[in-house]
């Protein structure tokens, strides 16, 4: 199993960051446009048991996945797990820690790439590289959108 982790410090409250990140439309806003993120179905705000059915473009192919929120602790943590999709295992933990200047948002993803022919394209190293680039973009957008004026 592979682990990816990235974090960003934001000059806002935990509640502001948490509320922003539990809204699927906001995730679409901060994601790189090259991902082509499209929600087939998702609630306006996530909660325990919520499911997000979405499509993304990865490795030149449009892929579908469904993630379910399996843990939800308002203003501290939520976890989404892939229930349907290309990966053998995918869990995304979102953690929020108070700091002296605001909040530290931590994204931790554990995953196992697929087997077979698809696994030849979707290798662990390629996934890690894409996650690094994607979260650099996401965190940069978060900094712009959640900086207090």
Characterization of the model:
The chain has 149 residues and is of the alpha+beta class. The chain is built from 4 helices and 7 strands; from the N terminus they run E-H-H-E-E-E-E-E-E-H-H. The protein has helices spanning 14-21, 24-30, 116-121, 124-145; strands at residues 2-10, 38-41, 51-58, 61-73, 77-84, 89-99, 102-112. Strands 1-7-6-5-4-3-2 form a 7-stranded antiparallel beta sheet, covered by helices on one side. It is globular.
Give short descriptive properties of this protein.
single chain; 149 residues; alpha+beta; seven-stranded antiparallel sheet; 4 helices; 29% helix; 43% strand; globular
How is the topology of this model organized?
Layout: E1 2-10, H1 14-21, H2 24-30, E2 38-41, E3 51-58, E4 61-73, E5 77-84, E6 89-99, E7 102-112, H3 116-121, H4 124-145
The topology string of helices and strands comes to: EHHEEEEEEHH
> Strand content of the residues, in percent?
35-45%
**Ends distance:** 41 Å
**DSSP strand count:** 7
Strands of the biggest beta sheet: in what spatial order? 1-7-6-5-4-3-2
Give the overall shape, derived from the CA principal axes.
Answer: globular
What are the low-pLDDT stretches, counting only 5+ consecutive residues below 50? none
Biggest β-sheet description:
7 strands, antiparallel
- Mind telling me the C-alpha Rg? 15 Å
Number of helices: 4
Which structural class should the secondary elements be placed in?
A: alpha+beta
Helical residues, percent: 25-40%
**Could you tell me the mean pLDDT?**
92
From the structure provided, what is the oligomeric state, counting identical versus distinct chains?
single chain
């Amino acid at each position: 199993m592979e682990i990816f982790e990235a974090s960003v410090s934001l000059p806002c409250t935990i509640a502001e960051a948490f509320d922003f990140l539990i809204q699927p439309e906001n995730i679409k806003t901060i994601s790189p446009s090259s991902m082509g993120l499209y929600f087939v179905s998702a609630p306006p705000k996530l909660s325990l048991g919520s499911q997000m059915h979405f499509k993304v473009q990865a490795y030149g192919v449009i892929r579908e996945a469904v993630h379910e929120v399996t843990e939800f602790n308002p203003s501290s943590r939520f976890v989404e797990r892939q229930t349907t999709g290309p990966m053998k295992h995918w869990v995304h933990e979102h953690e929020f820690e108070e700091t002296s200047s605001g909040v530290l948002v931590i994204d931790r993803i554990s995953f196992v790439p697929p087997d077979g022919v698809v696994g030849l394209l979707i290798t662990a190293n390629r996934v890690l590289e894409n996650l690094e680039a994607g979260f650099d973009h996401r965190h940069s957008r978060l900094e712009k959108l959640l900086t207090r004026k």
